Amino acid sequence: MKKIFFLSLFIFVSIVLFAQKETFDITSYTAPNGWNKAAKKNVVSYKIINQQKKSWSQIGIYRSMATKGSAAQDFESEWQDLIVNTYKITDAPKMTDIPEQGGWQIKSGGSKYIFNKQNAMVMLTTYSGYGKTVSIVALASSPDYGADIQNLLSSVELSGQDGGVGLTNTDSNTGSQTYPVNTGTNSARFAFSTSNFDDGWMAAEKTDWVELRNGTITVLLHYTNAVTGKYIPNRDEATTVAWNNLIAPKYSNLKNYFVFNNTLDPEAPFLVSGDVVENSTGKNVHVVLFNRGKSGMIEFICADRNAFIKQFGIDQTKLNFYSSFESWEPLKRMASYNKFAVAASDFTGQWTTDFSSIQQYVNMYTGMTAGMSSYSSKQVFEFSGSSYKWTISTASGMGGNLKFKGSKSNGAFKWLSNWQLNFSDIDGKPKTYDAYFSCIKGARVLWLSDTGYPGYTSFGKAD
Question: Do 23 and 154 reside in the same domain of the chain?
């Protein structure tokens, strides 16, 4: 029975429906519910102990470091450092093949060992790409924790480089004179509809996009609509539809039309550009429409092609099938400027977040189904004046045997700054959260990150 357990942890089918992510360094992931978290400078760990069954498990997510040169070298180095030297394991790891994801090469291997005269397993997973490597170590004394381990691993997302942007922690309305008209439909309901970033970029909420400006360059972060949000598998058709829906209606006299969408990159980016006349002003401008992964549709408006190249470092004429994945980061990074300050008056009514996942198990020998587990949770903040109520409820377990848990508290919340809130009691103790809003069509998303355990969670307003 133990042998089957150790092997089965490496062969799984996972379907994640919705994700409530935490972030450490460049790694975003879904933390296991009910596990105790401990954060240090170079590692975030989660641990659980069942005193009745005398079983335990632990997962460690390590800070990224420079690659040793290849995925194989990274795994071998981390296996020696984190596994052999720590747990004195002499057996070679049993490896499993995992496809490359988003430019990251993944290696995973594990082994049995004895801990306190008890059988246990250890598994190391390394992610190599963009000049970096990230390691995740999982240990367990029982198959009871296999689903939680695999849920976390299947939820991992990595950023190729730091996509964050610095915000000046002052009144973001100081940029309002730049955008005197045509603000977004949400602007009247929230205190801040503009942001000034410390690198010179300014953002303003508009009806159909977030508008960014820096000098003579304008960037539009388009909200998803019924046309651009539709999945179109044919790349040529997808780029044409996006251009015709977002760009063509606003411009005329198209020249030097260029399309690039044939690339090795698994995130399937596309870049479409052209020299046009802006209908609203009559100016000659160079327009670029870009999309990659979760960036959304981003429109760049520059005086000419050279201005675009100077600002973002991408020359369309030099792009090819083997272009580096990192070359897209200056463009994709612009999506992170969809960020607006918070005010005490913004918090009324309910803000909620939901998470659900299922895990289907398959017998590695017969291919027959071996059952299914599920997990779901809902977290609610209800604000009224300077007070709030907070609840969280979860349901988890194998099919037909769900277990329900919940917690609630209430108290007073304080607006500490444009980017922080304090709650007097969350699950038995006061907590401070970093906070900001991002804009979507006709609504806002609230992002909260516990300052003691960094990692943003998104909340939507319940109307």
Answer: yes
Identify the weakest region by mean pLDDT among 152-166, 362-376, 390-404, 439-453: 152-166
Non-local CB neighbours of 297 within 8 Å, separated by 6+ positions: 222, 224, 228, 242, 246, 289, 290, 291
Which of the listed residues 337, 369, 393 is the one where a domain comes to its end?
337
Task: Give 262's contacts (C-beta < 8 A, 6+ positions apart).
Answer: 235, 321
In a shared domain, residues 331 and 308:
yes
pLDDT tens for 321-375 read 777 777 888 999 999 999 999 998 898 899 999 877 777 666 666 666 667 777 7
Please state the pTM of the whole predicted model: 0.59
Helices and strands counted in the chain (H then E): 7, 28
Shared-domain flag, residues 30 and 103: yes
What type of residue is 353?
T
The sign of the CA dihedral 393, 398, 400, 401 is negative
- Residue 200 forms part of a structural domain: no
The DSSP H or E segment spanning 217 is: strand 217-222
Which domain range does residue 57 map to?
2-158
User: How many domains in the chain?
Assistant: 3
| In a domain? residue 167 | no
- Is position 400 within any domain? yes
Radius of gyration of the chain (CA): 24
The last residue of one of the domains, among 319, 337, 355, is 337
Element (H, E) at 147: helix 146-155
User: DSSP characters for 353-393?
Assistant: EEEEEEEEEE-TTT--EEEEEEEEEEEEEEEETTEEEEEEE
Task: From residue 250, give the alpha-carbon distance in Å to each of 214, 270, 448.
Answer: 21, 20, 36
Classify burial at 154, counting beta carbons within 10 Å of its beta carbon; exposed 0-12, middle 13-18, buried 19 or more.
middle
Distance CA 218, CA 202 (A): 10
For 329, list phi and psi in degrees, rounded to 5: -60, -40
Three-class SS state of 252: strand
Considering only CA atoms, which of 359, 361, 357 is closest in space to residue 11? 361
Tokens of 340: 């607006």
